[in-house]
Amino acid sequence: MGISERRERERQEMKTKILDTATKLIVEKGIEKTTIRSIATAIEYSPRTIYLYFKDKDEILYALSKKGFQLFVQQFEAAQSSANPMDRLRDIHERYLRFAFENPALYDLMFILNDPMNADPVKDGWEIGLKGHSILRSTVDACIEEGHFPGQDAATVAFTLWSYVHGMVALKLRNRMRMYPKEQIDQIILDSSEMMLGLLERM
Q: Fewer beta carbons within 10 Å, N or C terminal of the chain?
């Protein structure tokens, strides 16, 4: 490996370390209390070092959000193996829930927090942020072609499904389900999901 290749590898390793540390701090302290200085302290470098890799906190948050959407899309793409579009839709639904609960900090950045970033979606290659919805929409289109959701518009169906599952995720992540016993929350969400999917399959 040449000098330039080694330097690039080291640079990518440092960027990954910064992003992983930022994610950890967001989970522990929240986004407002996660600062350039706190990230630098956690990795035992000076804040000036962070600025060699990211121009500001917004750019770090943008990189984390983009990473989240890449993982998110990978989950949706993995749900495309079945020939039955309703089975694919069920798989997407289940993978959405699993992704959100396994990656709460990323999900917060992607779908719950007010947009904290000043990145240009076109210039900065934000197409990945739209791809997940595109997969959902094409799956709904395939369901409609097979006779499901009669008389319904694909965009409306896709939005209804997305808003339903997002609502459950947001309620749990924002601790708005305290009226239910804590040990029952996950099962309630799974049962609700099954109920919705069962209704959809009968349409």
A: N
